[in-house]
Amino acid sequence: MEFRNLQPSQNLYLGPALTPQLRQALARFCGDSEVRYAAVLEESGTLCADAGDESLRDSGETAALAVGAFAAVQAVAARLGDDTFEGFFHEGKSRQFCLMPITPRFLLLSVFQAPVRFAVVKICAHKVIAGLRTTLESSPKAGFALSPLSLRGAADAGDFVLGPDVLFPED
Amino acid sequence: MAVINHETREVSFKLVYCGTPMGGKTTNLNHIHSRIAPGQRGDLITLATSGDRTLFFDFLPVHTMVINGYRTKFMLYTVPGQVQFNATRQMVLRGVDGIVFVADSQLDRMEENVTSLHGLRRNLEENGLSLDTMPAVLQLNKRDLPAVAPVPYLEYLLNSGARRLPVFQAAASGGHNVFATLNALAQGVLRLFHQHTSPPRPGVPV
Questions:
Q1: Could you tell me which residues are beta bridge partners of residue B64?
Q2: Domain-by-domain residue ranges, chain B?
Q3: What is the per-residue burial (b if ≥16 Cβ within 10 Å, else e) of A11-27?
């Protein structure tokens, strides 16, 4: 197959220590603000870490939609002349959520229920965002040491299974 | 851009189906969703108009186990084909690892095919990517319809660039070569990931 000599885009490595750190920070945030579920999302639509009510976790559908919604609303704001976009808040009758940027690449999703007030969540979110930003920016960047292919040493790199050709069989 | 999470032991890749308006991108995802083992997929999310045109994107997560015990997830997206949704297409292409370009084989859709492919190249460039250097496949869809262009002509129009993409003749409405397209691209993305993240072996020049 004609896939030789290609260049991958830069990978994102969430090291063994990073995800628990993020989750602890999110769990504290949930406790302090009465947020029911909080998650760190990456701009390509990937869930990086979460805490709180596990029933709100899914296979990635919510993360994909949330990241898309955030980017869309941000683009609308910019087109309408506002370059100071700081996220958005959905005020539902029962369940509410807000999306706020942590860095240009990562977002914080906070889900909460009435009577928890957005103002309280926002204050707590600003605190946790500062911590999450520091954690994410200080995490190690890409390297062979963090690749799944090197976890058991170079000799095991062949464990990467390229066959069979049919990764997804049709039922 | 793969996302590797060592704690959850999961590697995620993003594959995007692009192409001509009404060319069959959503039909590809619908078929995959209906025919893949339920344990290998999540929910199919479709954001469409009442006329079944994709408004924002479709999304289907599918997964397998191929990297050292890591759950390997492929997040499948489509983008809307219509010209006016270019900002949405750029957004969905952020962090993409592999592309399926779905071309409509019908003779009267050649101009839309070429316009769409040029638009894709531009959007990838704006994301710092290129069809010439990333895993991508060309799916010639609707081969089951009567008035279709000959394959060599479609290849001349859509696949005569610096790098020749793997080609699949498909009829997505009946499922023909839908899984072959997905499997080829997934393999291509995994091979690239393997090449660029494997540790150097002793005695082998990097």
A1: B72
A2: 3-192
A3: bbbbbeebbebbbebbe
Contacts 24+ apart (CB under 8 A), B44-50: B45/A61, B45/A64, B45/A65
Q: Determine, yes or no, domain membership for A82.
A: yes
**B103-145 pLDDT, tens digit each:** 999 999 999 999 999 999 999 999 889 999 999 999 999 999 9
Q: Rounded to whole angstroms, how far apart are CA atoms B175 and A25?
A: 46
Q: How many domains does chain A have?
A: 1
ipTM associated with this complex: 0.79
Residue pair B70/B59 in contact (Cβ under 8 Å)? The answer is no
Q: What is the pTM of this model?
A: 0.87
By residue range, what is the domain housing residue A71?
A: 18-142
Find which of A13, A147, A151 to mutate to test the B interface (most B CBs within 10 Å of its CB). A147
CA–CA separation, B9 vs B71, rounded Å? 6
Q: Is residue A155 part of a domain?
A: no
Average pLDDT rounded to a whole number, residues B56-63 = 92
Average pLDDT for chain B: 90
Query: For B26-38, b where at least 16 C-beta lie within 10 A, e where not — what string?
Result: bbbbbbbbeebee
Q: Considering the domain boundaries, does residue A11 fall inside one?
A: no
Residue A35 lies inside a defined structural domain of this protein: yes
Return the CATH number at A68: 3.30.450.30
A130, two tokens: 């500062």
Q: Which residues of B157-184 are buried (b: 16+ CB within 10 A; e: fewer)?
A: ebbeeebebbbbbbbbbebbbbbbbbbb
Give me the pLDDT at residue B197, please: 73
% of chain A beyond a pLDDT of 90: 47
Is the minimum CB–CB distance between B6 and chain A shorter than 8 Å?
yes
Return residues 55-94 of A near B (CB < 8 Å): 58-61, 64-65, 68, 71-72, 75
Which residues of A fall within a CB distance of 8 Å from B58?
Answer: none
- Stronger pLDDT, B65 or B155, i.e. the higher one: B155
What pLDDT digit, counting tens, does each position of A76-123 carry? 898 899 888 889 999 998 899 999 999 988 999 999 998 888 899 999
**CATH of region B3-192, choose from 3.30.200.20, 2.120.10.10, 3.30.460.10, 3.40.50.300:** 3.40.50.300
